[in-house]
Design brief:
Layout lengths: L8 E5 L4 H12 L3 E6 L2 H5 L8 E4 L5 H8 L4 E4 L10 H18 L4 E7 L10 H14 L5 E6 L2 E2 L4 H12 L3 E3 L6 E2 L2 E2 H10 L9 E4 L6 E2 H12 L6 E3 L5 H11 L4 H10 L10 H6 L9 H8 L7 H19 L7 H19 L4 H7 L7 H19 L6 H21 L8 H11 L5
Helix pairs in contact: 1-7, 3-4, 4-5, 6-8, 8-12, 9-10, 13-14, 14-16, 14-17, 16-17, 17-18
Amino acid sequence: MRDGQQKRTALVTGATGYVGGNVVKQLLDDGWRVRILCRSSAKARKRSWGDEVEIVGGDATERSDVARALKGADCAWYLLHSMDSGSGFADAEAEMARQFGEVAAEQGVGRIVYLGGLHPTDSSGVSEHLASRVKVGEMLMGSGVPTAALQAGVVIGSGSLSFQLLRHITERAPTFIAPDWIRNEITPISERDIVHYLVKAADLPADVNRSFDVGGPETMPYVDMMERYAQAVGLHRRPYFTAPIMTRRMASAGLSFLTSLSDDEILPIFESVSVDTVVKERDLEELVGTPAGGNQSFAEAVRVAARDTAPGAYGEVATTFHVIAALWSLWAPGRAWWLPLNLTQAVTMVPTVADINERDDSQALEATLGFGPFSAPASQTAFATALNLDFNWIARRWPNKWTRGAWLLSSLDLARRVYKEKPLRVLGLVPYIAAQFLMVRPTRR
């Protein structure tokens, strides 16, 4: 905020989202009076800034709610977009943006700042999600309110779904068969930098009504992003291969099994990078300036985003399992055929425990799974118990039928835990549990 300047009022939509929440924090730091429009006031109050903002409970599709939120606002940040893939979502997004711009004009809002996505000059071949973002920007720029429609690619930050997917692919997949578009060019941007440009866009001259490309200093293929992420956090380089038959839908379904993201979250990300998403101009940098020290490099952005994670933890668990499997093979070579079934168990349980471990806090865990019986330590113990019972079977140490029953019950407990976290993963345990039923059932004499 400029010295001597009266406090300005900001209206932020999408404030409970990743980028929106960071914009709110920066606006408060800069001295703005911040108001947010959100459907869940309770959710907003739980944020670190919840007591420092004015919360307008409402829906961005309701004209009256939008009017209440925009009343008296100097600048409005439109940070809403859908991850839905149902029919008509693009038309609904365009109508919501048209109404928002119309109401903003009626309320005398001085500027709208919007975040869309980088796309080729010819946007005719882009995905429906990316085309929708382009259309939303056009609607806002045509509203009569000066609009800065920022266009960004992959955001490198701890709460970014795109970064989370990049991180999980690199950390959890020892190798990866990908569609050809993995070699498409991308200009990523750090969390710090995208927030800087979104906030500073409020200070643009009143006659500026246009889109702006924003991005970090480097452009690279998506596959290079994975390799450079591994290098930045100290992981070994992973080999990746492309296959023309691997569709975005196939890739997203496979990675949904391995990561904490759902298929519906992964597919729009893949669709957005299925074309080159590169910065073609840097006019906004000239108009508002870059952050202190310039735009962050990819490696620096990764180190900041990954500082509270354990990039090598997943690999350590996988290595431990392979060592145990090798020892089992030496101990009971006649039952080595059981090890592939143990592998399906590990492939299912390791990402499940990893996902629980990565939850933000115990309150989030308690709200979704129930803190005690489904916490990470409890799930780790359940996994270890199952492995121990497997070892006893391989070593032929079955004192009675009760031990065999405990073996089966242990596996059913694993299935219950996996289902609570991600139902699709239960399929990975089917061969393992089916084989146990055959082993445990009474034999006829």
